């Protein structure tokens, strides 16, 4: 099973948020940062952080899910959410230590699924602030 994850290097991030646009386009079919599985936050002009699922080896989100909707994909090893089982209870969102699980306005719970081993946010990051390690 692949143990890779997305890594963010603040010093390289320009704040362009292309990662958010690419993610939402690939997963939800529209360029809308609120639909992205990665979020870039600004603290001030120079400081930024990224919130994205870090694919924890001991994933609390999987353990806490009462519907067994959160699971590790057997093929990619990425944490995934089956929204046909998910009751939108938000336990996974509340328990994620890295703020990497999000709830959309529709109630759908989402997290980074590593794009089946080829994360598009990493691929299109113009500054190299994101890497797949």
């Amino acid at each position: 099973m692949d143990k890779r994850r997305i890594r963010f290097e603040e010093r390289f991030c320009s704040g362009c948020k292309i990662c958010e646009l690419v993610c939402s386009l690939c997963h939800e079919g529209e360029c809308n940062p609120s639909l992205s599985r990665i979020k870039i936050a600004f603290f001030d002009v120079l400081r930024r952080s990224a919130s994205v699922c870090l694919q924890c080896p001991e994933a609390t989100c999987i353990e806490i899910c009462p519907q067994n909707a959160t699971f590790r994909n057997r093929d990619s090893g990425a944490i995934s959410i089956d929204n046909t089982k998910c009751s939108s209870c938000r336990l996974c969102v509340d328990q994620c230590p890295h703020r990497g699980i999000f709830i959309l306005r529709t109630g759908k719970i989402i997290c980074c699924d590593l794009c089946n081993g080829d994360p598009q946010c990493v691929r299109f990051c113009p500054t190299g602030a994101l890497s797949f390690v």
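The helical segments are 18-28, 60-64, 91-95, 120-124. The first strand starts at residue 6 and ends at 8.
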